[in-house]
Amino acid sequence: MSLRISSLGFAALALAGCSGEAPVQPQAEEGAKPIDCALGEGSDFGAYCFVENGEVEGQEVLTIRHPDGGFRRFTVNPDGSGLSVADGADAARNALIENGERLEVVVGEDRYRLPVRDHDAGAPKN
C-alpha cells in the first residue's frame, strides 16, 4: 500500500515552534526544532530530539539529532511517500498518525514523530 501525505504532494515538514523555549542541544544548529522521539527498544516518546532542515544537491534533507550526540539523516521523498534514510543500512518505515497531522518514521528501534505540512509541489519552499 502506498502512503500519500496529500494530494498536493509531500515536500516539506512544518516544524512549528513550541510554546516554551526548549534548550537546543550543543550539537544541533541554531534554529533546530524539538520533536518527539523514542530511541531504543521499549523507550517512551518525549521531545528529546531536534530536527534541522537542509538541502544537498537540490534534495531536501532532515537531520535528526539525538540527545546522546548521535543523529540520523533523511531525505524527503519527492513522490509524497514520506522520508527515506540518507545514510545507513536500515530502511525507514513511514506512517501518518493523529489524523494525518504527524508522520511517524521508524528506523530500527528508533521512532520519530514530525509535524506534516502540505503544500503545492510547484510552489517555492519557504
Automatic annotation (TrEMBL):
This is Lipoprotein. The keyword Signal applies. It comes from the Bacteria. Residues 1-16 form the signal peptide. PROSITE patterns: PROKAR_LIPOPROTEIN. Keywords: Signal.
